[in-house]
Design goal:
The chain is of the alpha/beta class and about 350 residues long. It is built from ten helices and 14 strands.
């Protein structure tokens, strides 16, 4: 049998390097198969194999299945058995490969994909940023903290911490497709936005009111930033849960990121059920807007950082009353404004 410690060490090394791989274990072996129950290997998408789970007949089927598992993130059980001609068939709980090999023998293998954790970059050292760094790892994110003058010991849950927020320092260490959240709250906002645009991010979310975000977006455009990239910045960040504390705001932001990451199937189902009129969810494309029943007023807080939203006017209420209420809402300071 192969050295399991070596296989596990290789798996850890590949994961730390961000290389997708799969742990393949022999569950059952019938002679004259060359592998034995308990044998293991780590296999990458390009077919690199570390360990031993069978000879030349088994390896093509293993590599092919590993690629499928890495593509959809699902574990698989496969059986490789002698056959008069090569075939592949799905037997519900196991995928069977018939192999016309001279060596014979049957192998059953469990293929478990080991995918790198999704990466989140949190820019800022505000209370919201601190809370987000604590929460995000618990739902599977590897969190990189970027804050001018930050100390690693202040962020025990972070994967890594950068104490400078310039692109030259940070960008080489952040992989493509990271989720970026800016929670600077008035401290080096433009610097943080510029850094976020320099990263090859999947999504950039900005914890700020819509009014403040628009002012800063205009500043970015004036400085020559790409207009499409600026327009794609999600602001206000988070779902409309009337959040007020830093922990609640961080929760709303994380929920929106997770929903976007998972495809927002629930929002799409709600949209299909009641497509008109719609309440736009901050950070989501217009076609994924949550449906809002016509008889209900829009909630006073459209997002945790939205600074308040206009209240819908019921049919029986005079227009002046609605205007007074909306003025009162607009006068209320946002939980994220300037702080």
């Amino acid at each position: 049998m192969n050295n399991a410690d070596t296989v596990f060490d290789t798996a850890r090394r590949l994961q730390q390097a961000g290389t997708p791989c799969a742990l393949v274990s022999v569950v059952k072996a019938l002679s004259p198969a060359s592998a034995h129950a308990g044998d293991k290997a780590v296999v990458t998408a390009d077919g690199e194999m570390h360990g031993w789970v069978g000879g030349g007949c088994a390896q093509p089927a293993v590599v092919r299945t590993v690629r499928q598992a890495l593509a959809d993130g699902r574990a698989r059980m496969i059986r490789i058995a002698p056959a008069s001609e090569a075939h592949e068939r799905d037997l519900d709980d196991v995928l069977e490969f018939g192999m016309a090999c001279h060596s014979g023998g049957t192998l059953e293998l469990f293929i478990d994909p080991l995918l790198p954790r999704a990466e989140m970059v949190v820019i800022g050292n505000s209370p919201v940023a601190t809370s987000l760094v604590q929460l995000a790892p618990r739902v599977g994110f590897a969190v990189t903290v970027v804050a001018q003058g930050a100390h690693a010991e202040d962020y025990p849950d972070a994967y890594r911490v950068f104490d400078r927020d310039d692109a030259a320092t940070v960008a080489p260490h952040v992989g493509a497709g990271a989720w970026v959240v800016i929670a600077t709250q008035g401290r080096r906002d433009l610097q943080a936005l510029g850094l976020a645009l320099a990263l090859d991010a999947r999504q950039v979310s900005f914890v700020a009111s819509a009014r403040k975000a628009q002012v800063l977006k205009d500043s970015l455009l004036t400085a020559g930033a790409d207009s499409a990239a600026v327009a794609a910045i999600v602001a206000p960040a988070g779902y409309p849960i009337s959040a007020s504390t830093p922990e609640e705001i961080a929760l709303s932001v994380l929920a929106a990121v997770v929903s976007s990451r998972r495809g927002t199937q629930a929002a799409m189902r709600m949209q299909d059920a009641a497509p008109e009129p719609a309440l736009e969810v901050p950070g989501e494309p217009a076609h994924l807007a949550l449906a809002q029943p016509a008889a209900l007023p829009v909630p006073a807080a459209s997002s945790c950082c939205g600074g308040g939203a206009a209240r819908a006017q019921p049919a029986h209420e005079p227009a002046t009353a609605t205007a007074d209420a909306n003025a009162a809402v607009a006068a209320k300071p946002s939980c994220c404004e300037g702080g």
